[in-house]
Amino acid sequence: MHSGKSSLILTLLNFLDDTGAVMIDGVDSSNIPRQVSRSLVTTVSQGLAELPGSVRFTILPTSKDSGPVNDATLNNALERVGLLNHISSHGGLDAPLADMGLSHGQRQLLAIARAVLHKMEHNSSILFVDEAARAVDIKTATAMQRSIDEFFGDCTTISISHSAENIASSDIVVSISDGRITSIVRR
């Protein structure tokens, strides 16, 4: 059932027009230029798009202004999400992503590594997590949450989830149904 959670994220990123005001840290998000809002925000979505190319190509930040990122930085991000050994044993950073044999959970961890690199490049202050732990096992969900807490602890994190376990550490929980906020609970 679609309640509007993903639409809220798209509105916050200025991909969808809204009829009201979406405020982030006291600023109407529609007043932030789209390119600026995209650099201030890091996203981890339900699935990592499998683009043709190498692991390096997949996880590198996409900004035209980004300078070269050295292998040590890339490997550090992969190690911290628990994927470096797997990637290294399957050909390393320059091997095709399609040859990695990654499970869904490993692909989500790769998405977090990519998000970490994006945050490092842009010093983003907001993290959107859109059902990232959906369809992963408990061990992977725990690893994902640990990585998010470690790397994005200084960020405002907005998580979309149907699972109470995935939002257990949230300070504020907003429930949405049929495109409307139905409750706000502060913990």
From TrEMBL:
Name under which the protein is recorded: ABC transporter domain-containing protein
Entry keyword annotation includes Signal: yes
Domain of life: Eukaryota
GO molecular function: ATP binding; ATP hydrolysis activity; ATPase-coupled transmembrane transporter activity
Signal sequence segment: 1-21
InterPro entries: ABC_transporter-like_ATP-bd, ABC_transporter_C-like, P-loop_NTPase
Taxonomic path: Eukaryota, Fungi, Dikarya, Ascomycota, Pezizomycotina
Residue ranges of every copy of the ABC transporter domain listed in the record: 3-132
GO CC term, one of those recorded: membrane
Keywords of this entry: ATP-binding, Nucleotide-binding, Signal
